[in-house]
Design goal:
3 helices, 143 residues, MPN, 7-stranded mixed beta sheet, single chain, globular
């Protein structure tokens, strides 16, 4: 098991960003190195339907974030999104659309809106484009 470290200020920004999208799902990207987050990229959920239970990161924003991270020698560390009415655990859709095997997947549950719950996972798939995979809980530290 590896560890994801998110600075407290970035954690606060993530929660604020996701609250702005509530009751729809919000999403974003985290950059850094070796599981240590140093950059936060809040993104737009461009899912055309069912934003309350699905997300799709704006591809332009994702490309810009990845290009910036690459230009400064960092990498995409994690992809995050909210679950507005369910636990902070990957859904079958989350597993199916987990195309970044090296990234953490961070989920924040707003099932209790005043008490968000955050968890990190790795989604291990034999084929990144496949339908199924193993959900592996990861240690998460907010500093």
């Amino acid at each position: 098991m590896s560890m994801l470290v998110i600075p407290a200020q970035i954690y606060k920004e993530i929660i604020e960003h996701l609250r702005r999208w509530y009751p729809d799902e919000g999403c974003g990207l985290l950059g850094g190195k070796a599981g240590l987050v140093s950059h936060h990229y809040p993104t737009e959920n461009v899912e055309p339907e069912n934003k309350y239970k699905r997300y799709l990161i704006n591809p332009r924003q994702q490309m810009e974030a990845e290009e910036e991270l690459d230009s400064i020698g960092l990498e995409l560390v994690a992809i995050y999104h909210s679950h507005t009415h369910t636990p902070a655990y990957p859904s079958p859709t989350d597993v199916r659309t987990a195309y970044y095997p090296d990234s953490y997947y961070v989920l924040v549950s707003f099932a209790e809106p005043d008490n968000p719950v955050i968890h990190a996972y790795k989604i291990v798939k034999p084929d990144p484009w496949g339908e199924s995979g193993e959900i592996v809980g990861q240690e998460l530290q907010i500093l």
